[in-house]
Amino acid sequence: MSESFSTEASPSVSHAIQTRRSVRAFLPDPVAESDVREILEIASRSASGGNLQPWKVSVLAGAARDALVGAVAERMLATPFGEGPEYDIYPHDLTEPYHGRRGQVAKDMYALVGIERDDAAGRVRQMGRNFSFFDAPVGMFISIDRNMGPPQFSDLGIFLQSIMLLARERGLHTCPQEAWSLWGKSIREFTDIPEDELIFCGVSLGYAVPDAAINDLYTGRAPVDEFATFKGF
Length: 233
Description:
Elements: H1 13-19, H2 33-43, E1 56-61, H3 62-76, H4 98-112, H5 120-128, E2 138-145, H6 150-169, E3 173-177, H7 184-190, E4 197-206, H8 224-227
Antiparallel strand pairs: 1-2, 2-4, 3-4
Helix pairs in contact: 1-6, 2-6, 3-7
């Protein structure tokens, strides 16, 4: 599969997986509520241990989306790094090869938009773009009851992957955003998410800007033999 960025509707699961990216520049073109509902309805068929279906989703568009984005933009002036995380996004003692992979994707992304390594202000501005949903017209929040454990978070990941692939099937793109978990208090002001639910991530959904430099980010993947072993074949 070519590394070139695709905005075409995906004709197969393989194509959807290979063309899925975390898009960080979206067109303002609206997405129909019926499309979002269909994506979520089909995604609800995702595998779930014991059929618990632990995922909860809050969808914002139009004035509802804009109200949250505007409030967070104002609050960022005083607290640019949010209101405190809902959870630890990464382990504090991140080891190799994970530390190197995380560092490389950040380096590659900032290079695409011309932000130098020592440009702290530029990095903060780019981080802040998360909280406008990268201009996507639809923002979603995925939450889960706080009493759920690691197996249910696995279900959440499967559900999230289904959303992203179903979006590609329709020519849409997404960006899953754990960064939104830094703004739990504000999110709860503008949604129906209660305190007893942990906000896992936001999801930007829309049509990608096809020629945006940042959308050219193509992240590397380890070869199969680095993460898998085979016996008995």
